[in-house]
Design a protein that fits this description.
This protein has helices at 223-260, 268-277; strands at 8-14, 21-26, 30-35, 45-50, 53-61, 68-74, 84-90, 100-104, 110-114, 122-125, 131-134, 148-155, 178-181, 184-187. By secondary structure, the protein is of the alpha+beta class. It has a 4-stranded antiparallel sheet, with no helix packed on it. A two-stranded antiparallel ribbon has the order 2-3. Strands 6-7 form a two-stranded antiparallel sheet. The longest helix is centred in the C-terminal third of the chain and has 38 residues, at 223-260. It is rod-shaped and about 155 Å long.
Length: 330
Amino acid sequence: MAQFDANMWYQLTEARVGFGSALTSWGGNTTGFQAYNESDLNQYWQIIPFADDTNAYAFRSRTGGVGLAIGTCYRPDEIDPSHTQPCHQVLDTNDDNQRWTFGAWSNNTNYIVNVGNGSGYHLDVHPGNPVFMSSETSAEANDPGQHWMIQPIEAINDGGWGTALSPGQTFSATPLSVSQGSSGATATDSAASTVNPTGAAATTSVPASSASTSAPAPSRISPGAAAGIGVGVTVAVLLLLSTAILLFLRRRAQKRQEQQYPHLTGNRNSTLAAVRHDHSPKYWTHPQEVDTDGARIEAPDTAFQRVELPTESYNKEGTDDKPPQVPPKG
């Protein structure tokens, strides 16, 4: 069974992300994961035992103060059948929903159970947030989000935080003054707490600013942004595919031109363009004479005889409408 020092600030993370990220106390009464930063007091947790059950512990955030603890709340938008997530509540030592126990996995990590919810649920983390109570408890090899790792950061050394929680103690929620800068949150350990040593019942209420910090909200890609990314990727792929097809068709056309005009050299494109569009004499084909064995052949003068028409074959004055007659040869 895990044992923790109530005078120590701890960092909590899960095996999927390791100590590069840590459980963080956010505004809006929620918790989540973000990049680990030792100067960010939102990631400092006290794990303090209950005096009547030393195997049960309460989680208190340094920025939430001694009057707030992590309990469980119903969340209708939680996708797990439990519909339950951890949340900040005014510390009530009699509330089992604020009591947590630890069990050991075989790989030196822990699973965390909420006493009020029972052993049928383990503290888990959705990839990218949020933290929730999972109804899938057989997570030895299936769900690293239920394998919790815990390491100390520094000593608390402030008696106001106490060493154990006794039944009947009551608290009022007055969170620490927190300012979030580029180097993380800063705070002073001046949280006000009211302890009722008599154990009398007390009514408490959570102020509007309870557990309010200026830590960033969970970073998740919205469905609209995811759809936009998908459309953009699809368009990019189609453009690349269209470009590849056009280049292929152009290359095939060039190969056909090379086969049709193999004698053309040099700048193929410019030469072909000149042949197609330049009608100057330099592209005319000159007539060639046919020779037989290198000897020129000419037609004999006797191949044709000049024939003159007799003057009496027609009427010079045009009174005879008959055409002139050509006498037969020889």
